[in-house]
Design brief:
Layout: E1 2-8, E2 12-19, E3 24-31, H1 38-55, E4 61-68, E5 71-72, E6 79-81, E7 88-90, H2 92-100, E8 104-108, H3 109-120, E9 128-134, E10 138-144, E11 147-148, H4 178-181, H5 183-196, H6 200-204, H7 216-222, H8 226-250, E12 254-258, H9 266-281, E13 291-294, H10 301-314
Parallel strand pairs: 1-4, 4-8, 9-12, 12-13
Antiparallel strand pairs: 1-2, 2-3, 5-6, 6-7, 9-10, 10-11
Helix pairs in contact: 1-2, 3-10, 5-8, 7-8, 8-9
Length: 315
Amino acid sequence: MTAIGVDLGGSWIKAGVVLENGDICAKKTVPTGAKEGAAAVTGRIEALCREMAERGPAGPCAGIGLAVAGRVSADGKTVLACTNLPYRNEPLAEILAAKTGLAVRCENDAALAAVGEARWGAAQGVGSALVLTVGTGIGGAVLKGGKPLLTGLAGELGHMAIAMDGEACGCGRRGCCEAYLSVPALLRDCARAMEREPGILSELCGGDPEKLDGRAPFEAAARGDPAAKRVLSRYFGIFAETLVSFTNLFRPELILIGGGLSGAGEAMFAPLRARYREAMARHVYGDCPPDIRPAALGNDAGLLGAAGLIFVDRS
């Protein structure tokens, strides 16, 4: 038995054919093209699912699980609203089911990344965990006993305000942690730093901040660029204080961080752990802070969790 898992993000759509043991036997990634509108994005998802069905092993496919960077209805059929995708009250599961002939269910991508980590990854056997995905946006889920604690319209951790009248967020508010901790937010701060102090950051992108990617500040800082070092120091400080707030709310045994930016490895995790422990040490309730680790499934967490959703539905 197989299932098709699709991870629909603001920048990329990943799809794969997944076996019940978590092995991915076929996979492909394409740009989302969110600016082209809902119909174009849905067409790409359909094409990917058809290709995955053809490339998968012979035998029955249980269905399609779709991890969506946004809010999804409790029945898993409708994408209600997204910050970085062109969907609003879109019956996406029904549309794709009609086009592919397979059962389809949608869920929030961060919740499904957490499900993947609990089923096959770093949260196996852990009583409670906070799982954050850092990419085009900030996704978050809290696991309790291997299942998401917050579902439906709850759990939008990326849109917890951390600064009154702060940076504008794609959700329409200001000061959300997504407006400070997402990859676009980090690159925005790099672009501002380049204007004040051209250096290695500017060299890496040929002076065009639109060409910066999430690796650039880490590479520039490693090469001694003072502007990149200041940007990252502020970034890690804000991230650490945000994690302290989440720790106060949920008291997880473990914090897992995935998404595109986690690919920076210890260049990200070492300073973030240090700043978080410093912040917790100043806190009257800061004893025994949970460890911060990379999510084990990497960029496949959402895809695997989406497939896992289908397997759970059949069990």
